[in-house]
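Lab meeting, item 3. Inverse folding demo.
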């Protein structure tokens, strides 16, 4: 259940703690309310030294701070099914932040059970999507717990948060300054940047916005080719070397990012009804999903591809909207899993100046047949059968014209 931040005195609260501005302010604020706050830092590959984050939370006054490595679980139970689903919200965003939120909420619930807390908390605002993801996930798996969102309830804007942090001597990232007040979220699958000057949709992001992708104009002048091997819809090798999905994402992200692949600048429809300008970096996600789609085009029938496209859109919406642990999501997972049984093969990508281009693909059970498709001598396609096929295919159109005349005439 979700409620306001009132009556927190003496209550044990487990806070999803990133070490950033929002959650550091939340932690201090809970202490001012007389609550007993615990911090939970979940390592999803965001790059922060975990022990530094723990020390920061303890230094602010947390009763305890838990650091949990959840990278493998994140990759195998959240990113992997999203890859199979080609999950891209709005056709562009690989959902790396949205995929991490149900896992964080799940771990918050586990930590709350450990310490006997009645409340869990997060640093989401009232305008964002994360509040929905945390709250709905908790309602789905632990409806007895109360969810608290101080940032949403206190109505403090970003400059006020910075002033509060400075007043109380709270440590926060040097990237958060009055000159460059970006809100950043990152994990091993991607990085998001918003707020500050980026809220003007006509403002061109400057170099300080990006961290894991090169400016395409400064990227190498020579392309790099990579081969991604897939088994039943999941990438399992890079350039012939078999890797865990976690290692593959990291390695591919580095090489694709070097070539400026994965920069996304989009106007996004948030669940709360507003449009927002979002900047993302997702070199591995953009590259893998492009390759995965190419392999599916070789191994799935036309009807399955067309139907799956609609499923993919709904899957992305459910993920974005915080409905990961729901019956519909489980049902879509079952359908998608069935489609991936034959999606095994290799895709070659050309990485160059901000683009990842499919330039080759092979598959063990390819439905593509050169003998049928070729225009050279020796084709096995029976061209003599085409005239009869066209006659039957066009029969409804011919029948309509016979009955109603030429509908294109005035």
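The presenter then showed the designed sequence:
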């Amino acid at each position: 259940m979700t409620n306001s931040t009132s009556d927190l005195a003496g209550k044990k609260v487990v806070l999803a703690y990133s070490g950033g501005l929002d959650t550091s302010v939340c932690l201090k604020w809970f202490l001012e309310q007389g609550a007993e706050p615990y911090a939970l830092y979940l390592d999803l590959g965001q790059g922060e030294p975990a022990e530094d984050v723990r020390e920061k939370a303890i230094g602010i006054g947390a009763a305890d701070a838990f650091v949990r490595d959840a990278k493998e679980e994140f990759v195998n139970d959240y990113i992997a099914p999203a890859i199979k689903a080609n999950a891209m919200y709005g056709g562009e965003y690989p959902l790396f932040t949205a995929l991490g939120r149900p896992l964080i909420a799940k771990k918050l619930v586990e930590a709350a059970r450990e310490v006997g807390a009645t409340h869990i908390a997060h640093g989401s605002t009232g305008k964002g999507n994360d509040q929905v993801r945390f709250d709905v996930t908790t309602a789905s798996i632990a409806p007895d717990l109360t969810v608290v969102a101080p940032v949403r309830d206190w109505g403090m804007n970003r400059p006020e948060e910075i002033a509060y942090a400075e007043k109380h001597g709270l440590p926060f990232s040097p990237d958060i300054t009055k000159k460059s007040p970006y809100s950043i979220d990152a994990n091993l699958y991607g990085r998001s940047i918003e707020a500050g000057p980026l809220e003007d949709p006509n403002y061109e992001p400057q170099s300080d916005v990006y961290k894991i992708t090169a400016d395409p104009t400064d990227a190498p002048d020579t392309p790099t080719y990579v081969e991604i091997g897939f088994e039943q819809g999941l990438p399992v090798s890079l350039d012939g070397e078999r890797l865990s999905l976690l290692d593959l994402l990291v390695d591919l992200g580095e090489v694709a990012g070097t070539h400026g692949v994965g920069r996304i600048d989009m106007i996004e429809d948030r669940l709360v009804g507003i449009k927002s300008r979002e900047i993302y970096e997702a070199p591995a996600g953009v590259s893998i999903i492009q390759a995965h789609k190419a392999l599916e085009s070789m191994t799935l029938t036309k009807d399955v591809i067309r139907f799956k496209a609609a499923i993919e859109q709904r899957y992305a919406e459910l993920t974005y909207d915080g409905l990961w642990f729901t019956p519909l999501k489980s049902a879509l997972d079952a359908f998608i899993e069935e489609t991936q049984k034959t999606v095994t093969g290799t895709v070659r990508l050309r990485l160059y100046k901000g683009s990842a281009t499919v330039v080759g693909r092979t598959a063990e059970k390819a439905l593509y047949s050169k003998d049928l498709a070729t225009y050279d001598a020796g084709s096995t396609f029976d061209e003599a059968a085409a005239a009869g096929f066209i006659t039957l295919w066009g029969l409804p159109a011919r029948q309509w014209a016979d009955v109603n005349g030429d509908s294109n005439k005035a």
